[in-house]
Every structure is written in structure tokens, then in C-alpha cells.
Amino acid sequence: MTLRILKTLNLTLVIGFPVAWFAPLLRTGLLPELQLPGWLGGSKFFEADTITVISGLQALWEADVFLAIAVTFFALVAPMMKCLGMALIHFDLLSPVTQPVIKYMGKLAMADIFILSLYIVIMKGMGIGKVEAAWGLYLFTACIVLGLIVSFFEGRKPADVV
Predict the structure, then answer these.
(1) How far apart are CA 86 and CA 84, in angstroms?
(2) Mean per-residue pLDDT for 87-98?
(3) Are 52 and 25 in contact (CB under 8 A)?
(4) pLDDT, tens digit, for every residue of 108-157?
(5) How much of the chain exceeds pLDDT 90, in percent?
(6) Measured on CA atoms in the order 149, 150, 151, 156, is the torsion positive or negative?
(7) What pLDDT, on a 0 to 100 scale, did the predictor assign at position 158?
(8) Whether pTM exceeds 0.85
(9) What is the 3 state secondary structure string of the chain?
(10) Interatomic CA distance for residues 123 and 161, integer angstroms
């Protein structure tokens, strides 16, 4: 892959990830409303028919703030910092010396783990009620796969990138 293609793919991620966070991931039906007991915070789950990454995080913020901070950082902040950092390096606005830090941010980014766990939840939920994937799930998956492809080719020496 040429550097120009890597730049374009990375900039696509800078736009694609935020769109995917707000896009409908799942449409649920026939799931009973789940309300935690008061001693667990009394939060409600499965209120909405459409679930997004952001709505899932909002529910998590109501239930457990410390876990929500961790998930927000690893699922939203770290992937975006990695994409923006790589874009800055691609356009010579940031020194390539910072690339190891940006690669470390990519390792902290758990978007791929998040999507894997989401698939597991979908599969387990099939027996409980009707769960269908929405277009945002495919967009989010595409962003994760594209991010992995960019990371793979970014780690190669310039002579290896063809």
C-alpha cells in the first residue's frame, strides 16, 4: 500500500468512528425492561428500541462511573487519538519520533474487543428476544477492520509498503 492510500484510509477513520458511535447498532424487541435494584443504583436497561455505542456508554455512566471512564477512554478516546496522531505524522505536523507512543495508544484502544463482546452479547440475546443488527454495526465493524489494516501496513518500513 502506498502512503497516500494509508493517509486516505486513516482520514476515513477520523470521520467514520464518530459516525459509527452515534449510528444505530442494534434494534431490540421483546426484551423486558430491566431495572437494577435501588442498592445497585436503580438504573434501567433496554429502555430504547435502538442501541448505539453512545447510548450504551450513557447507560454505563448511570450504572458505574469508574467503569464508564475506562470504557470511554479505551473505546472512544484511544482509537481517535491514534487516528489523529497518525494523520498528524502523515502530514508532517508531528514528529515521527512520537510514533511509538501513538502505536501504544493503538494497543490501548479496545474497539476491536468492544465489537467482539458486542457480537457475543448479540448471539446470547437471540434466545431472549428479537435482536437485529442495524447499519451502524456494519459501519463500526468496518472502521475497526480498516483500523487494523492501517496499523498493519503502518508498522512496515517504507520499502515494504508498496
Answers:
(1) 5
(2) 87
(3) yes
(4) 776 666 665 666 566 555 555 666 778 888 888 888 888 888 877 876 65
(5) 10
(6) positive
(7) 52
(8) no
(9) CCHHHHHHHHHHHHHHHHHHHHCCCEEEECCCCEECCHHHCCCEECCCCEECHHHHHHHHHHHCHHHHHHHHHHHHHHHHHHHHHHHHHHCCCCCHHHHHHHHHHHHHCCHHHHHHHHHHHHHHHCCCCEEEECHHHHHHHHHHHHHHHHHHHHCCCCCCCC
(10) 38
CB 19, CB 52: distance < 8 Å: no
Q: Which amino acid is at 52?
A: T
Q: What is the dihedral of CA 109, 153, 135, 15, to 10 degrees?
A: 70
Closest CA relative to residue 109, chosen from 75, 145, 141, 86: 75
Distance CA 33, CA 49 (A): 11
Which residue matches cell numbers 502530514? 91
Mean pLDDT of the chain: 78
Side chain identity at residue 57, one-letter code:
L
